């Protein structure tokens, strides 16, 4: 779904006011659910979640943290719900055998980095991760799911979006009131710059570390190329900005809903417009796994870079070697 514009407007916007009672109920129910005790995993569980609905950069964060965990000597495996996939799991993701329609797009990306398991039952999924040799589980999303105890939970916040109007769904983008979610996280990963700085300041007031990071493409990856950039992710505009920063001449952009399943008509329209503009098509790694192999589009790879990795490494070291 595309987030409605009023989610980023003033909390007294007429639509937000009309939906506020429903949002208050939804927020209370989610907060109560988050407070339930969960089952202990077979090994330490790191959860990367977000306070809001939609994309915040959790998957790039999961990939970056898995790299750090491996550098610390751990054997991480990813655990995902497999949003958009048909398989309930638990199933070990095999990119040679599974497609986005089977397991979702994000697990296919994660599986390129480390073993990945898709499971709607998080406890069963954690057991399969451990059976495969993992000694730490990186859970992509699931902050509001209480079924599996999190040994370390970090909230990922897109600074460019922040928490919108600060109201729970459907009046705003929050999954639960922010005040009720602080107790469930041990730190914040702030991606980029923007309104999310206010969330970072609130995290510091709660005594939580803020790990500042930025999504970056390889310098000059598209330097001088005329491109039509398209994306079906949580915040396409963030990707388009990264394309421009890579040195590309952006002739046009096309935004699709998050996890958009590209139909033949979508692809034909994109190809025709790119030909008319004399431009190359460029998209995200996440979109690329939902495209037919024969579709000609460049893929711009981005990685999450931390301003100061030392405090984050300390948290992960403590997770791997608990006292």
Automatic annotation (TrEMBL):
The keyword Zinc-finger does not apply. InterPro entries: LpxK (IPR003758), P-loop_NTPase (IPR027417). It is an enzyme of class 2 (transferase). Pathway: Glycolipid biosynthesis; lipid IV(A) biosynthesis; lipid IV(A) from (3R)-3-hydroxytetradecanoyl-[acyl-carrier-protein] and UDP-N-acetyl-alpha-D-glucosamine: step 6/6. It catalyses: a lipid A disaccharide + ATP = a lipid IVA + ADP + H(+). Keywords: ATP-binding, Kinase, Lipid A biosynthesis, Lipid biosynthesis, Lipid metabolism, Nucleotide-binding, Transferase. ATP binds at residues 52-59. Its EC number is 2.7.1.130. Pfam families: LpxK. GO terms for biological process: lipid A biosynthetic process; lipopolysaccharide core region biosynthetic process. One of its GO terms (cellular component) is plasma membrane. One of its GO terms (molecular function) is ATP binding. Belongs to the LpxK family. HAMAP family: LpxK. Transfers the gamma-phosphate of ATP to the 4'-position of a tetraacyldisaccharide 1-phosphate intermediate (termed DS-1-P) to form tetraacyldisaccharide 1,4'-bis-phosphate (lipid IVA). This is Tetraacyldisaccharide 4'-kinase. It comes from Methylobacterium hispanicum. The gene is lpxK.
